Amino acid sequence: MTRLGFLINRTLRREAPLTALSVSQEALLGELSGKSVALVGNARALAEGQAGAEIDAHDVVIRINRAPMPSAASHGTRTDWLALATSLPQAERTRINPGRILWMSHKRKRLDWETASSPGFYLHPLGEYEALKTQLGAQPTTGAMLIDMLAGSDLARLDLYGFDFFASLSLSGRRTADKVPHDFAAEAGMVAKLTERDPRIIRN
């Protein structure tokens, strides 16, 4: 698909051509089979710890949106996959240097050509977004969508870092919980149930 074709299909909200740019979810998750995965959230509390080396020691490191990394000691340095629900300025793209980009947002109009044409690009299905939104009773965060998706893979271990469900707010912004369209209590409950029944998922 050309850049012009992409812009036309995005403007007209043609989902099928956009989906054709993406690797399948089956192929994406297949790459995680038997691997250890670190999913790094953006809770401010993570910056107070020393988990960086531990994060980078995983087979796959996944970060979210602007992926703030205030120090290597607290956050590590690697970004194998970057999951986005917002636009990413070129300076941030260069800083994070992700190996692959996942577009998790249902807002296709925010998806840019550089992201959609990048190697290994993944577009999260609208149906899965809507199902999780119904389950939670609110728009899911990028982190919740990732946890929900990754739990269905054959990964060996999923370590969650920087997930306190807005208790310490986010390193990527100054908004408080009442200013965002998410239900953090519902997401915390979802993750608690997952960790109870799936010993592969560990909240650090």
TrEMBL record:
Q: What is its main location?
A: membrane
Does the UniProt entry include the keyword Transmembrane?
yes
* Keyword list, A-Z: Glycoprotein, Glycosyltransferase, Membrane, Transferase, Transmembrane, Transmembrane helix
Q: Does the keyword Transmembrane apply?
A: yes
The compartments listed are: Endomembrane system; Membrane
Q: How does it sit in the membrane?
A: Single-pass membrane protein
Read off the InterPro entries from this record: Glyco_trans_29, GT29-like_sf
In Swiss-Prot or TrEMBL terms, this protein is called Glycosyltransferase family 29 (Sialyltransferase)
State the organism named in the record.
Thioclava pacifica DSM 10166
